[in-house]
Specification:
The structure is a homodimer of 391-residue chains. A 7-stranded mixed sheet of chain A has the order 2-10-9-8-5-3-4, sandwiched between helices. With 391 residues, chain A is of the alpha/beta class. Chain A is built from 12 helices and 14 strands. In chain A, helix 2 crosses helix 9, helix 10 packs parallel to helix 12 (369-388) and helix 11 (331-342) crosses helix 12. The longest helix of chain A has 21 residues, at 284-304. In chain A, a hairpin with an 8-residue loop joins strand 13 (347-348) and strand 14. The interface between A and B is large, with 99 and 99 residues.
Chain lengths: 391, 391
């Protein structure tokens, strides 16, 4: 018998059973996944070109068009998480030397600027401190000064809890010959966004927030203006996986016979389809109202605990609430206590808000009054115990 | 009451229940997913930075090190499908102007050449007709002539059914100062590959073939030589999502505290972990033997049906068997008949093999003698009926 060529033994740790504790996920996402969506994702697979797969993709497309309120034919889901959609948006649009204006008031603007820089774009920033939003005036100044191809702005700034007003922004950008690119990963379904009426050129989101599906697919849509810019490119985008020409064909957006492009994450698509179906059944307006009402109820409860909200009322994101870390407390002790004693995830800050805030997410399936009561109880408990531990 | 701002109604087609038929997936992937892996993927989510998530990622890393037979610390799973790992490999290594040598004998070499071209690399090709493999001599000629930074070659050419011999290739590349990048999406676990012993510098695979997990995550590993080249880069890679510096940190490969990078596809990781655990339990050698035996049994059965195999015996991929489309038949009629009457997926060719072959995959969970019997019965039936229909 020949000697074994193996030099590395099967790892001991893989002999243990997979252990996944049950938690209430009230951080900035992912949210908990409702049983109906878990069941969809647990279906047996299909091939990436089976007619049923293509039909489910068509249903996803229609669901995104509803959620985004757009008629754009170029609407589909990226085979990756929200970050991947951010890259898909930027790398299909911007070429070497293109001017890109990025509104930075939290981590997502910073990330978009980083990505645009990697693509060789001339990146310009308009800045606001974390917790604040941009006025039309702030943006117009940047448009006039830098004459960008595209403006990147975050609708729901999940690192700071800010909801960016979008009224008039698309019109303003278009007056200056600029495309409007909006990140709605944390806001879609939780606060009004109307792609066509608000003249947004590129909009993307994630599956794991209000849609309450697992992370792994990301809705995206391009206006005709954005599509034309992509057609005018001089170079191929620096990615085949995210090339919108190929993806448009695979998703049946270009009227041509659909061709194999990549092996898509089929069961992530099943889950996303169910998340979109549940949003369509509830209705966008009911979803917005529900997120608004539960957020207001949470904010009231947090203030009753003596905590101070990080964002002023007019600009609060209904899906993720930020509250200042109270004096005399370590945020890490609070989040660890809430996790360990109450099996609830709440988060600290991220990027520019790190160390300053706690973040509590109420998204989709998790946006309920009962969950607010549960997290408030946990926080009250934490405020008692974590202070005691430092006396 | 304010008028509704909505202009697009919930789509009718999303009101229908999700319909996913049960099929035996004997195409080039995805494979069917065993109940244990479906159950893992159907667990409730965790956050991307929860200790249990990080531990599961550590288990995945150990599982990949076993499956790849490597001690490389820089071993992790990409948050995307196999294609995405191909891009991750190329975009982290190659910079503008770097010489990249691509061995093209099917679609995957073509894709790699396309991607490398998008990255601004100087792409050179060594070519072989579909169905053939490369000798060391073929490769050495290219190495001498083009002095590439990296050679891309496909171990399991799923479009043609060829298994590329790897013996001596790493040593040859290193003698010429070239890195060796190997695509093992379709072969990992089905045919021997020994990353360290074979001196492979970058190796990647997919989750949906022998590992029998859903598509959506992709194992990848980099040797110390490859890591050093990445450290010597003059420019940042043109992707943040796939930046190996960030990913190495998130996966705990760089010895520094792990930081949030992106919201990973958590439940795809659960599934991948189980796929790797099942491979470790079975053992690599048993898995290779099983794929070899079932492939041989299939090949014998196909020849007994009077069909001609596309690849000569010495170079047959044990996971995907290609057979010539028999004269007097339309491959589309055969695959449609097998799908519609027998609920079995088999595939036609892809890229350079399109129209020439039928492809039958036996991977992981699906590599059983019973499945071979089932697909042979279906094919016999198809050969009778599809010929009759054209008389």
């Amino acid at each position: 018998m020949a000697a074994s060529p193996l030099r590395i033994a099967p790892p001991e740790r893989l002999r243990q059973p997979l252990a996944v504790p049950q938690r209430l996920l009230l951080g900035p996402g992912p949210s908990n996944v409702p049983p109906r969506i878990l069941a969809a994702g647990g279906q047996q697979l299909l091939g990436p070109m089976h007619p049923e797969t293509l039909q489910i993709m068509d249903e996803i497309k229609a669901g995104i068009q509803y959620a985004f309120q757009t008629h754009n034919p170029l609407t589909l889901a990226i085979s990756g998480t929200g970050h991947c959609a951010m890259e898909a948006a930027l790398l299909n649009l911007a070429e070497q030397g293109d001017a890109v204006l990025v509104a930075v008031n939290g981590i997502w603007g910073e990330r978009a600027a980083d990505i645009a820089g990697r693509l060789g774009a001339n990146v310009h920033k308009v800045l606001k401190p974390p917790g604040e939003y941009f006025t039309l005036w702030d943006i117009e100044e940047g448009l006039v000064r830098h004459k960008p191809l595209v403006l990147f702005i975050t609708h729901g700034e999940s690192s700071t809890g800010v909801l960016q007003p979008l009224e008039g922004l698309g019109e303003l950008c278009h007056r200056h010959g600029c495309l409007l690119l909006v990140d709605s990963v944390a806001s879609l379904g939780g606060a009004p966004i109307l792609m066509d009426q608000q003249e947004i050129d590129i909009l993307y989101s994630g599956s794991q927030k209000v849609l309450s599906a697992p992370p792994g697919s990301a809705p995206i849509s391009f206006s005709e203006r954005a599509r034309e810019k992509m057609l005018r490119r001089k170079t191929k985008p620096p990615s085949f996986y995210l090339d919108m020409g190929w993806l448009a064909n695979y998703w049946g957006c270009d009227g041509k016979p659909r061709m194999y492009h990549h092996t898509a994450p089929i069961n992530s698509f099943f889950s996303l389809r169910e998340g979109l179906a549940m949003l369509a059944e509830l209705g966008l307006e009911s979803s917005w109202e529900r997120h608004q009402a539960n957020c207001a109820y949470l904010c009231k409860g947090l203030q009753d605990l003596g905590l101070e909200l990080f964002v002023k009322e007019e600009a609060r994101l209904p899906t993720i609430t930020t509250v200042k870390v109270p004096e005399g407390y370590d945020w890490k002790e609070i989040t660890a206590f809430v996790m360990n004693k109450h099996a609830i995830e709440i988060a600290g800050g991220l990027g520019p808000s790190a160390g300053k805030v706690l973040r509590i997410g109420l998204m989709g399936y998790n946006s309920t009054r009962a969950n607010v009561d549960r997290v408030l109880r946990a926080l009250r408990d934490a405020l008692q115990h974590c202070r005691q531990s430092r006396l």
